[in-house]
């Protein structure tokens, strides 16, 4: 053991270390610098491409800017992820070469291992294929509000393997693309809010529908809402005879994601209009009907003297 740590050993080790520091270390530092610069360049390049495409979409009168921005953000995020994977893979292979490791057998072994994993990881392959077609067919984009497998929320991230959804409570849901059975996109191209307004049975439904249309048309004509509401309100008519109300259905077509805010404002205005016209919005109640043949129930009270007298 003592022979291994002789002066000659330490001299040889020092010489090899100095040689490595002079020849290989600068190259490794340069590679690290190139990696950092490459990642920043990719980030800036993607940002510039996204900005350029957004400006082009805004200038095109036939293109819906909001829809185009969603599509652009989704695609550029995927491209950025792929470029980062490629850069890191090249960097690792070059670093291994600098440490004297032959990457040829590693690449060959990785190919064989990948083939073996491919047979066993069919679910992973299915996720990637499903994610590719999901993006290609523009089924859902980052920023959309969608219902995925029965869970509603805002789409935060779309990747080749998974899709991330955040619901109204702030809970994040991650779905494997291969296990997504149903996608209901609530904000693609345009949206709509449906109103089922209940009024008392005694009200004149024609008058109620006229007031509903007046309120909707007034909102549509206002500059603040004219750009958000795509078409005048549609009054579909009496939709249902409920237990304590007549339900009248209406629909308002809006730009994507704006249907809920516009719906809340319309309901607020409609409530005020109903109050001004003395139109009753009933609350749930129950009427007990005894029938014409049944007389009203009578109650008799027996006094202290034992005489039964009807209650006054």
Oligomer: single chain
Top CATH class of the largest domain:
Mainly Alpha
The largest pleated sheet is described as:
5 strands, antiparallel
CATH architecture call of the largest domain: Orthogonal Bundle
The chain-level mean pLDDT equals 81
Using the coordinates shown, work out and report the CATH topology of the largest domain: Helix Hairpins
Rg over CA atoms, rounded to whole Å, is: 36 Å
The domain tally reads: 3
What is the number of E strands? 10
Strand order of the biggest β-sheet: 4-3-2-1-5
| Cα shape | elongated
Low-confidence stretches: none
Beta fraction of the residues? 15-25%
SS-based class: alpha+beta
Helical proportion, percent range: 40-55%
Put simply, the count of helices is: 8
Order of helices and strands: HHHHHEEEEEEHHEEHEE
Cα(first) to Cα(last) distance is 119 Å
Can you describe what's shown?
There is one protein chain. This protein has 312 residues and is α+β, with helices and mostly antiparallel strands. It has three domains: 7-120, Helix Hairpins, CATH 1.10.287.1260; 140-185, SH3 type barrels (Roll), CATH 2.30.30; 191-276, Alpha-Beta Plaits, CATH 3.30.70.100. Helix content is 51%, strand content 18%. It has eight helices and ten strands. The chain has helices at 7-23, 25-59, 65-98, 103-120, 122-136, 205-221, 223-226, 259-276, and strands spanning 145-148, 151-158, 162-166, 172-176, 183-185, 191-199, 234-241, 246-254, 300-302, 308-310. A five-stranded antiparallel beta sheet has the order 4-3-2-1-5. A hairpin with a 5-residue loop joins strand 3 and strand 4. The chain is elongated and about 125 Å long. The N and C termini lie far apart (119 Å). The model has no long low-confidence stretch (mean pLDDT 81).
């Amino acid at each position: 053991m003592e022979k291994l740590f002789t002066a000659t050993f330490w001299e040889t080790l020092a010489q090899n270390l100095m040689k490595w520091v002079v020849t290989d270390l600068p190259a490794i530092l340069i590679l690290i610098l190139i990696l950092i610069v490459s990642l920043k360049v990719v980030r800036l390049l993607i940002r510039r491409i996204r900005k350029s495409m957004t400006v082009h979409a805004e200038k095109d009168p036939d293109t819906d800017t909001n829809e185009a921005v969603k599509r652009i953000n989704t695609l550029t995020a995927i491209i950025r992820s792929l470029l980062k994977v490629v850069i890191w893979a090249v960097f690792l292979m070059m670093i291994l070469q600098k440490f004297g490791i032959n990457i040829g057998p590693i690449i060959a072994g990785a190919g064989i291992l990948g083939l073996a994993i491919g047979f066993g990881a069919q679910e992973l392959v299915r996720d990637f294929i499903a994610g590719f077609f999901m993006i290609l067919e523009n089924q859902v984009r980052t920023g959309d509000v969608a219902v995925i497998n029965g869970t509603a929320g805002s789409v935060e991230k779309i990747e080749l393997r998974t899709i991330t959804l955040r619901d109204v409570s702030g809970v994040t849901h991650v779905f494997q693309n291969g296990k997504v059975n149903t996608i209901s996109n609530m904000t693609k191209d345009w949206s709509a809010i449906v109103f089922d307004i209940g009024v008392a049975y005694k009200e004149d439904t024609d008058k109620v529908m006229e007031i509903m249309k007046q309120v909707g048309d007034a909102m549509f004509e206002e500059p603040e809402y004219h750009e958000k509401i795509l078409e005048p309100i549609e009054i579909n008519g009496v939709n249902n005879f409920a237990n304590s109300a007549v339900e009248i259905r209406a629909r308002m077509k809006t730009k994507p994601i704006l249907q809920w805010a516009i719906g809340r404002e319309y309901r607020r205005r409609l409530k005020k209009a109903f109050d001004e016209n003395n139109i009753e919005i009933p609350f749930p109640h129950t009427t007990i009907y005894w029938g014409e043949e049944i007389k009203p129930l009578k109650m008799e009270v027996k006094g202290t003297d034992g005489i039964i007298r009807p209650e006054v």
